[in-house]
Design a protein that fits this description.
It is a single chain. By secondary structure, the chain is α/β, with parallel strands linked by helices. It is about 25% helix and about 30% strand. It is built from four helices and eleven strands. The relative contact order is 0.18.
């Protein structure tokens, strides 16, 4: 059983607060005190450095955006308003204990959500996340970074909807120099209603849950 909620009680949440809430919730799941949960929310401006990240990938933080070291997998990325964050706090002790399968299921979920808006997302060999073709260039539109604590997952995915892409210029996103970053707004040419993205995520969650079993 899982509980799907839209956020942690606040629509746009400071990263450190959501990180703390997520860790507490994971601990409770590990002790069988809480049901599984999937959270959909937005963050206030932050650069996060994952377990394999390096502060040197924050190359020009002219806006003095907060930097947060986190325990998720992956390198450096940006989170901000206009970007959908999905946190998966799920108990894989009850499911398939397969990290690659879990990550692929998240990527497939992102591809299905994009398809709801007529955007074709795809995967690239050897890379994590979802890419699209925009103006004859391959660009990343969704990033994945997860963590497992005794097979209970945390963190998850970020999908660029109407996010300020200029904020990515201060970093080397996910350590990738050869591909740019894009958003649904940039690809479609108009702002996307965030509530529509929430609905598309919820609509496709059941298939995601089947894929990780």
């Amino acid at each position: 059983m899982y509980i799907l909620i839209v956020n942690f009680g606040e629509k746009k949440l400071e990263y450190g607060k959501s990180y703390s809430l997520m860790q507490k919730y994971v601990d409770a799941i590990l002790q069988y005190k809480k049901d599984e949960k999937i959270c959909i929310l937005e963050h206030l401006d932050v650069y996060t450095i994952g377990a394999s990240g390096n502060i040197l990938d924050v190359v020009d933080n002219i806006n003095n955006i907060p930097i947060f070291y986190t325990n998720r997998g992956g390198m450096v990325t940006y989170h901000g308003v206009g970007q959908k964050i999905i946190y998966f706090m799920l108990d894989l002790r009850k499911k398939s204990k397969d990290v690659k399968k879990f990550v692929l299921a998240i990527e497939n979920l992102m591809i299905r959500v994009l398809k709801e808006f007529g955007i074709i997302g795809f995967l690239k060999d050897g890379m994590v996340g979802v890419f699209v073709n925009h103006l004859e260039k391959e660009k990343k539109i969704a990033a994945i970074g997860v963590k497992f604590s005794r097979w209970v997952s945390s963190h998850g995915a970020s999908l660029n909807v109407n996010v300020d892409l200029q904020k990515f210029n201060a970093i080397i996103p996910c350590g990738i120099k050869e591909f740019g970053v894009t958003s649904m707004e940039e690809v479609l040419g108009y702002k996307v209603e965030m509530a529509r993205v929430d609905s598309a995520i919820v609509k496709n969650i059941d298939k995601f849950l089947i894929e990780i079993n």
